[in-house]
Design brief:
The protein has 404 residues and is an alpha+beta fold. It has 17 helices and 10 strands. The chain folds into 2 domains: 4-86 and 105-178, no CATH class; 204-243 and 275-398, Leucine-rich Repeat Variant. The chain has helices at 4-17, 35-46, 58-62, 109-127, 144-150, 197-201, 219-222, 231-237, 246-249, 269-272, 276-280, 284-291, 301-315, 321-330, 334-347, 350-362, 366-378; strands at residues 25-29, 73-80, 99-100, 133-136, 155-156, 162-163, 171-178, 207-209, 212-213, 240-242. The strands form 4 sheets. Strands 1-2-7-4 form a 4-stranded antiparallel sheet, with helices on both faces. α15 runs antiparallel to α16. The longest helix has 19 residues, at 109-127. The radius of gyration is 23 Å and the shape is elongated.
Length: 404
Amino acid sequence: MDNVTSWEKLKHELKAAAAGLGIDKIGIASADPFVELKQRLIRHRELGYESGFEEPDLDKRTQPSLLLENPQSIIAIAVAYPSKLKNPPKSEPGARRGIMSRSAWGEDYHKVLRDRMRKLEDWLRERVPSLRAESMVDTGALSDRAVAERAGIGWSAKNCSVITPEWGSWVYLGEMITNLPLPPDEPVAESCGDCTACMDACPTDALVAPGQLNAQRCISFVTQTKGLVTDELMRKIGNRLYGCDTCQTVCPKNRGKNWTHQPELQPDLEKAKPLLVPLLTMGNREFKEAYGQTSSAWRGRKPIQRNAVIALGNFKDPSGVQPLANVLRSDPRFELRATAAWSLGRIGGAAARDALEQALKLEREEAVLEAISAALAAGSPGNRDAAQEALGAPGEDDGLVKRE
């Protein structure tokens, strides 16, 4: 295979084979350095907007030749995932539920896309035995978004997602750097226009400019951290247990789009929208059995349990007082005890105050003592009135218990 026509033919056959490989869209990008991206990443770092989860080496993020010797093209793939729960369980007084982001529904998408990548590589190797390739999904060095944009998968939107004309932004992205001189595709024209729905709806104003995200304020990032969370951000978390989809759910380009054809990615309703109280006492083994096959498990159970504690506080449901009091009294992790104190202050009322006052006598950790004191100052019997609010209401499935 040594002429342009042959490589064009292979590219055409590859795209035709995509559905059979479990891939929804394939695009081809050149393997040239991402020069403009590097400048943006440098500025992003200078502003302190990184999450800390990224590849720290900006050269590796922008120079494919550092990842595969003499690369000739990058094959970008997109796999569509569901955006709606069919007949989800209701969150009700006494049985409050949290919500996992769509990226945590079904089987871990990293595993699913790696499977698709292996099939793609096998398909190529059958036709080009001299293939050399380096595949990556999300956790790789390259920017999935930048590759997908260059490959014509979609455009890079104001919400920092890639929006595809066919599937909206409900797609997982992956790429394969190769030594095959496949002809590149044309980028898709940007189509956000004047719309700022995503920026307007972001709970924490983390979308600081079109296509620019301050990850330190992004709820998706905050829900994956393990430490203490500020009062402001805990209120904004609502009942989100992992991730945040708000900037995608409000996007007009996603309206009516829900993809159910990838079997591994379909949600288990009880895992996608679980009861909060049982999460508080879930041990490591139980957590791994329930969530070990999902993308939410990569940080372990601690962030999800902390977020469940936060969600109970945001619901202001008196039924949460006793479970939270148990956490405050006996959980060995000071971050969860301090968070439980905050949530009890949010709920308020005599029972919450009693739990806080009892804990104040026994607690020795300074951070928890501070949280208890702040909660006692914030909590009052009058707050019990808020427990009667209709909090299991519109927007809850997107994590917004209510706006304040």
